[in-house]
Amino acid sequence: MAKLLWTLAGKPNGHLPRPLIFLLITLVLVLLGYGVLNPRSQMLGSLGASAAVREPDSLEGSTLSRMVYPQPKVLTPSRTDVLVLTPWLAPIVWEGTFNSDILNMQFRLQNTTVGLTVFAIKKYVVFLKLFLETAEKHFMAGHRVIYYVFTDRPDKVPHVALGPGRRLQVLRVRSYARWQDVSMRRMQMLSEAAEQRFLHEVDYLVCADVDMQFHDHVGVEILSSLFGTLHPGFYRHPREAFTYERRPQSQAHIPRDEGDFYYMGAFFGGSVPEVQRLTKACHQAMMADRAQGIEAVWHDESHLNKYLLYHKPTKVLSPEYMWDQQLLGWPSVLRKLRFVAVPKNHQEIRSPR
Amino acid sequence: AGEVTRTHPGKSKYCLLPRVTFLFLLIVTLVFFGYTSLTLRSQKLESVLAGVSMPVRADHLQAVNVSRMVYLQPDLLLVSREDALVMTPWLAPIVWEGTFNIEILNEQFWLQNATIGLTVFAVEKYVEFLTLFLETAEAYFMVGHRIKYYVFTDQPDDVPLIKLRDGRQMVIIEIQSHARRMQVISNFSQERFLGEADYLVCMDVDMKFSDHVGVEILSSLFGTLHPGYYGVKRSNFPYERRPQSQAYIPEDEGDFYYTGTLFGGSVPEVHRLTKACHQAIMIDQASDIEAMWKDETYLNKYLLHHKPTKVLSPEYMWDKQLLLLPMVMQKVTSDDLIHQPARLEWCQRPQTAFLWLWPLSELQGA
């Protein structure tokens, strides 16, 4: 083609003067370039500086929003077997209550970035590979994600291939001899990191235990200012049976006639400011307990439950989002098992070294 | 004398190539010009109401620290309502009696020290409705919270002086009788409401409160289900169906039919909504289109593309005369209706009652 153009330009008895031909060629190339480059620059723009080499397959955030889906039926509950709304009107997220297409569009339009924090201290690094690989399949597909891996063994963090718009940061932290301390100090580390870096990098934080794997979709339906997850062992139990801290001397104390739900310490989150407030409050409460020589019965989980009783979450996740199939099977009330425990030898994995 | 050059069939094909190439380039150029200009034009036609399709900002409210409260434990294995949808597909609560604990909610909003503005328009003969509206509001609307009534009227001297509870004020604002509601609220949101209220509730004046209407309704953006359409198929919603209108909604789209008589949200969100609706109305007016249900039509278009963060059930906008009509509400027996709170009711019947007489076959799920 170029050869032809040059020949055309050079031919003395061509039908057109040379400058005009050059002008035409330039014009066409400019238009071609505009048409090709414009949509791609929009897509790259929506992923920001961290765009991966691969072509982004993200949901286009800036197009108009015609969507076709079945009409919601006002006189038909979405679920007839479970509660889907707390008494303070926070959604309880179960399969069947939400339309992912609508939610995905809403969050893509805001160009949402989600941070997923996970702690892999000492031997727990062994869980990272499965955690990250399954997160790549099921966690916030199509959205911007930053994995924050807190570890004392950065060299042991596995190399997992990440999709477009997703990256991983390793944050080196110290370990503690007692596993209880490892668990509890997460609150301190999260609250510090929230202030120092998360605030500028992500919109929402999801704080998860590492000895887990994603088994099904976990998406933007979970995101809100502050969310907790129902502990799989207690969603059928009366509040008197919840393993809240019952000693009045502890900051985490909850009397027997109080309590909405028993939340699991392994999966909580929210907006960065809210998670910062929660983790800071829990850490301070744990330090106050330590000064009194008391340690709450379920450690950071006890303090989390106290916090969420008096600061009601704006969404609650059903046990679909925190399950142990080995212990609890697969009851019919759970249509999906999304985030499940990885079987582990507790004694072995929790050794001081 | 000009030189005339002619191509002779006998000449080598080398001579024809330039002409073919030139024609090819010309065609390509025209195609690109045509494509880009068409794309631009189609974008301009998209409605103002859908165009800047930003979702409602997330409710980044600070989770407030409530105090010790004793109430029944929520039962996770028991639905709060067997007969109704209590949450939209985008996880916004649909507020029905039985879904909320008002004590918890009251405490949350008290701790935020929330001020709620209630806007009402009383123009020309509608001034008559103010007394009943305001007196019943005093009895039922957000009792115990800080309230500011914004009464927009062309007859400020005729506004009744109702005795108000503590923490409640009335502001009378004079407007012209032909003033447009959406425009007025939009302007005042920016100028005044932003500094004075956290939430706005925008209502029609020809109503009376007959039961509790409280903070359970408050969120970033809320609409109310129209009592005549909550059981009806979307293709039968009285949306604007002319594609030329800014309020156009195709027959295969639509979540609910919202009533224009009660909507609201945070001040910034209400400002966005009223501004967009007003702009759309003006564009349609310039094209000589007038939507059948006025503000309500544009409200519906807006809420389709900017999903509300709460939806109020028809309890919040009831019409007692619906009780007399057969089976618009298929799943609710007339016994239940007696116990259903009808929180707000129309005082004046609409001129035509044809709206309510849908044949059964047209009803959703029939």
Amount of beta strand of chain B: 5-15%
- Widest beta sheet: strand line-up of chain A: 1-9-7-8-5-2-3-4
Mean pLDDT of chain A comes to 87
Whole-angstrom Rg of chain B: 27 Å
What is the total tally of β strands of chain A? 10
In DSSP terms (H or I, runs of 4 or more residues), the helix count of chain A works out at 9
**Sheet/helix structural class of chain A:** alpha/beta
Q: What percent of residues of chain B adopt helix (DSSP H or I)? A: 25-40%
Question: End-to-end distance of chain A, in Å?
Answer: 69 Å
Low-confidence parts of chain A: 8-12, 38-64
Binding site for an alpha-L-fucosyl-(1->2)-beta-D-galactosyl derivative (chain A): 231, 243, 301, 324
Transmembrane segments (chain A): 20-37
Protein name (chain A): ABO, alpha 1-3-N-acetylgalactosaminyltransferase and alpha 1-3-galactosyltransferase
Cofactor (chain A): Mn(2+)
